[in-house]
Amino acid sequence: MPLHSDNHPSANLAxxxxxxxxxxxxxxxxxxxxxxxxxxxxxVSASGEVLQVAGNTQVTSGDGMAHxxxxxxxxVTARLGADAVKGSTVYASGEPCAMCTGVMFWAGVxxxxxxxxxxxxxxxxxxxxLPIRCVExxxxxxxxxxxxxxVLGDEAMAVLHEAAARRSR
Length: 169
Known about the structure:
Layout: H1 15-33, E1 40-44, E2 50-55, H2 58-61, H3 68-80, E3 89-94, H4 98-107, E4 111-116, H5 118-125, H6 134-137, E5 146-148, H7 153-167
Parallel strand pairs: 3-4, 4-5
Antiparallel strand pairs: 1-2, 1-3
């Protein structure tokens, strides 16, 4: 499978894929409104079924690893078993960090599609950063993990800009 990054594949995605990304973006807004970091993820099975939509819960759970992608994988695995994640796709409102990418890889996620890019998020928020790109984390991975993005980046960034505005108040 090819590895992609910043190839703007939105026009090539099916309507159900764009819908899954919009669910992730909506979850990012819900996470922000709940007092968490503004990130969301949708985990879709290999057969195309939406298995979980999750938001970041780091603040409300007190768990520094509760990034949206990790929460989605944990919840599906707990509810349906580890095999349910094999071959799946995760749609993430923001490009997954190295931790999330590793979790998804080891869980058997086959494809990641993201909205806002790591460079965009770093430029907006500054501060602590783990700047390695998702596609770089899985470069050379076996089995390969496909990485596509940004997809609906402007919509994903709108929530992040709102988060930045709230922080500056």
